[in-house]
């Protein structure tokens, strides 16, 4: 979503190019990226900032740019999660999601990024563990011949690799079992089954496919079709049987390339989206004021807020105080934060939500805002957090942490730079209902 906020297709391609070069150097030749999901549901618990945004054209263009960046540099790109996971309200890692929109919505909103990916020559597409009622109301896309063979192969003309999403996810394993589902997926049209999970689950998948082939439940013809596509990619296009080993010294040098880090920092700065500023920002980096950084644990870790405090310390001539609350800040912690605020001159409050913002975090921001000190809130995950504390004096979206807490320090470092005067470059890649429209973004 941060890349989407830059609106810069060249930057999107460059990020993918660098990722591909670093991936090949360290021995990886296939990336399950980019997301072609159009995140039309703000409450989506699993896609969120992994998507480029809510606009179909933006997602399509960014998807194509990244496919070019990966595949021109020797890494297979994967458009996912077909035919779209952006309008779900269930995390398919935990349960089976279904979308009830009609075929027209599917065609106009969710399929265009995949059509654009196919036109751009994407070499693989990943399936969604989601029931698409308009195509097959009974089976999720991963297991549906109507979706994988009927829609993707026959209607849309995709000739590349179809890979399933992880078969250990509860949407599949709890409903059908990893082994039986693997057979169903291949019969539906999948070429590669992502056999994740425990070793027994992986063995169950392998044994089920092996037995299905021997019994005739899975035909040799069907398996050979997939093998041909796999060998076409591995042998002929990507030549993966040449230079099969990586050089660790060379890899270390490539992933430490200063120009790559500079590019990442520049893209991050251009992604930071300033949505509100009531004469709060920028903070003066050269004065001797005390800055309080206070925010929540994220997935049990204090390191996110501590790292942001360190970034602020690197920028500010004044002193930095930091305090980490529980993920859902308690009244006692809010009281402690207010005591610290009384001794500070200005306040940075990072918040984090992967779906809905915990009530305690919103209460913390509101309490600090009432302290009378200049307050800037920084959303680390979804940009919608401000809906829970619209009265805050200044607000920045950084898109720096996704659903599982995977951090992008480059992004929150850029947010700190913006707080202390660097020009923000981002435009909102989603709309925030009742507050800000798609494309909104302030500058100094």
From TrEMBL:
The keyword Electron transport does not apply. Residues 1-231 form the Glycoside hydrolase family 3 N-terminal domain. InterPro entries: GH (IPR017853), Glyco_hydro_3_AS (IPR019800), Glyco_hydro_3_C (IPR002772), Glyco_hydro_3_C_sf (IPR036881), Glyco_hydro_3_N (IPR001764), Glyco_hydro_3_N_sf (IPR036962), NagZ_Beta-hexosaminidase (IPR050226). Belongs to the glycosyl hydrolase 3 family. Signal peptide: none annotated. Residues 272-433 form the Glycoside hydrolase family 3 C-terminal domain. The keyword Lyase does not apply. It is an enzyme of class 3 (hydrolase). PANTHER family: BETA-HEXOSAMINIDASE-RELATED, GLYCOSIDE HYDROLASE FAMILY 3 DOMAIN PROTEIN. GO terms for molecular function: beta-N-acetylhexosaminidase activity. Its EC number is 3.2.1.52. Keywords: Glycosidase, Hydrolase. This is Beta-N-acetylhexosaminidase. It comes from Peribacillus deserti.
